[in-house]
Design goal:
The protein is an alpha+beta fold and about 190 residues long. Strands 1, 2, 3, 4, 5, 6, 7, 8, 9 and 10 form a ten-stranded mixed sheet that branches. A two-stranded antiparallel sheet has the order 11-12. Strand 9 and strand 10 form a beta hairpin.
Amino acid sequence: MRTHAVLSRIARPAALLAAAALAVTLAGCGSSSAKTEPQAAPSPSPVEPVRVQDAWVKATDKGMTGAFGILVNDSDADVTITGATTELSPMELHEMAMKDGKMVMQEKKDGFVLKAKTSHKLQPGSDHLMLMKLKRPIPAGEQVTITLNLAGGKTLPFTAVAKPFTGAGESYRPGSGPTSGAPSPTASHP
């Protein structure tokens, strides 16, 4: 009986230690959360006054094309988009306007004014960003980087995916229209 008491006194702590070690081992193997938990995020940067949602560019082989999406002004102040740039071509801000009884596309020289806490939709047949004199084709699926220029000198880069679009049959006539030397639509626009 004395042997049994000595073994029990030794076995209990050993069994508890073994159980604890097994629990720690199983917890480490059974959960990969320690390995996949995200790193702490860096300090938040100031919120940009404007963001672009659902951005896309009409895929094309040559010439010119349009960029579309939703401009959202999350700030408490009006923001003016004064221009846009991309490495693929010169760019202009465009609008549709009535001229001589026809809807025509023209440069919007004063920019797009985004009222505080509102959005502004860029879409075919309406306001849009125009990529002029493309240096190369823009195939469907390509990610196109565009930078908006805001009044006051800030810029806002965003990415737009190129998509095939046949909803508007466009026809351009070189050397005509409201922009100097730039093609202008004779039917509708991108």
